[in-house]
Amino acid sequence: MELSTWLAFFAASWAISISPGPGALAAMSAGLNHGFRRGYATTVGLVLGIWSQLLVVGVGLGALLATSAMAFTALKWLGVAYLVWLGVQQWRAPARPLAELQADAGAVTPRTLVLRGWMINAVNPKGTVFLLAVVPQFMDLQQPLLRQYLTIALTLGFTDMVVMAGYTALASRVLAELKSAAHMRVLNRVFGGLFVAAGAFLAVFKRQA
Description:
- The chain has about 210 residues and is an all-alpha fold.
- The protein has 10 helices and no strands.
- Helices cover about 80% and strands about 0% of the residues.
């Protein structure tokens, strides 16, 4: 991959990472419920989910997923169900200040948070369709593909790790100032509603014919 091409993709990666979506919601939700250090494990999962999607695209299964109505629909509704489940869980989360929630955070292991983050990106067919549309524009088919895919994976991973750190910190530091149980209840319901809305948007998403 030429340096100029990589710089263009690097710029695009920032736009991709910063754009609000289920990943940003998950990062902020994790920061709100578990604080920055523990909540950042969710970002590790999000990056692994992106890499999983890129692997699917790289080995050619992405094109099959995008053209197979059955496979696309099955994955889409799995993603919808998972986002709605996250929304319900967030809606019902205890309305307690962050300091109290962090005291009980040991009940949720980093491995669980990583898995949650991975699921959000790995079962979202919009990610596959997006990568199928964007990645080929930055690749030179006359050059070794593996090296280019590794470059793309590392670039996407880096920008996501940085951006999601910001989202997680925003939730854990700024929202931590809200001490009232009523405020926390409102926040939980806002985040819960946003997860459900993300699921609804995914439900109406259709692959291109």
